[in-house]
Amino acid sequence: MKNHHVPVLLSEVLAYLSPQLNESYLDLTAGYGGHAESILDVTQDYKDSVLVDRDEFAIDYLKSKFPQDITLINTDFYSATLQLLECGKTFDMILADFGVSSPQLDNEDRGFSFKSESPLDMRMDRRQPLTASEIVNNFSERNLADIFVKYGEETPGRAKMLAAQIVHHRPINTTKELADLIAHYSKYSRIHPATKVFQAIRIVVNGELEQIEKTLPLLPKLLNQNGRLGFITFHSLEDRLVKNFISEASSHGEESELTQVTKKPIVADPSELVINPRSRSAKFRVAKRN
């Protein structure tokens, strides 16, 4: 079967989560199963493991990739966490990879990338009503500027200028139209000038940071004693939430729920960057259940 996705930091994930035979595994953002496949190859415990993804295309692929006795949940990771807590489930390992998967970026119909002429969509779960088009074409100029600052980390002056130009040039129908408009009003930079705006819109469409904030405090309750908890983030907003959560949960001495395993985030080594350039912004943090 064709490999749809190259998992980032795979050797580091295996080293720090240290899967063992018969251990249970929860993947909160399973995607196309890259990390899950390698971990489950070691544990061989499919019946006690759970793979979660809000993308129906990913779930369909996972159904064909893994044995029928593994549990697949097609919803966002916060809703899945609540479901699993209600059922009293616990796991030896939990992984959350908060990045957009390569198939989502590469599928022109999904509208995540500015490298092709695509509809302004960006929904990880296509059952939800809010799309990138709704934000770009209907949100107020002030609201757009606020989004670009808060979630794209643009400077206030640049965010205000870009928001004004977007409103002035409405309607904007495709990712390329939006990216070209932003590029037209930008100076040359090493990364594409639309990168931060696209990030901001995608975060709002999918409620990404709110999902992370609500989910993090619940995760220790899903871990067995000595269970390992890993997070892969791709920008500073995500990483800050994870860093602060682990720091707080491990700061209460003997009463701490977690022990911080990685004092600094683990990043991709140069050999991986050559094979998988998308790993360049990935950061991996790990904690352990006390």
Annotated CATH homologous superfamily of the largest domain: Vaccinia Virus protein VP39
SSE string, helix = H, strand = E?
HEHEHEHEHHHHHHHEHEHE
**What is the number of helical segments per DSSP (H or I, 4+ residues)?**
13
Total domain modules = 2
- Given helix and strand content, the structural type is alpha/beta
Description of the molecule:
43% of the residues lie in helices and 13% in strands. It has 13 helices and seven strands. Helix 7 crosses helix 8. The mean pLDDT is 93. The protein folds into two domains: 175 residues, 3-Layer(aba) Sandwich (Rossmann fold); 98 residues, DNA polymerase, domain 1, CATH 1.10.150.170. The protein has a seven-stranded mixed β-sheet, sandwiched between helices. The protein is of the alpha/beta class. The protein starts with 9 loop residues before the first helix and ends with a strand.
Please outline what is shown here.
The protein has 290 residues and is α/β, with parallel strands linked by helices. The chain has helices at 10-17, 34-43, 56-65, 77-86, 102-106, 132-138, 141-152, 156-168, 175-184, 195-206, 208-215, 236-249, 270-275; strands spanning 25-27, 50-52, 71-73, 91-97, 223-233, 258-260, 283-289. The chain is globular and about 60 Å long.
For the structure shown, list the relevant keywords.
7-stranded mixed sheet; 290 residues; 13% strand; DNA polymerase, domain 1; Rossmann fold; alpha/beta; single chain
Helix-strand blueprint:
Layout: H1 10-17, E1 25-27, H2 34-43, E2 50-52, H3 56-65, E3 71-73, H4 77-86, E4 91-97, H5 102-106, H6 132-138, H7 141-152, H8 156-168, H9 175-184, H10 195-206, H11 208-215, E5 223-233, H12 236-249, E6 258-260, H13 270-275, E7 283-289
Parallel strand pairs: 1-2, 1-4, 2-3, 4-5
Antiparallel strand pairs: 5-7, 6-7
Helix pairs in contact: 7-8, 7-10
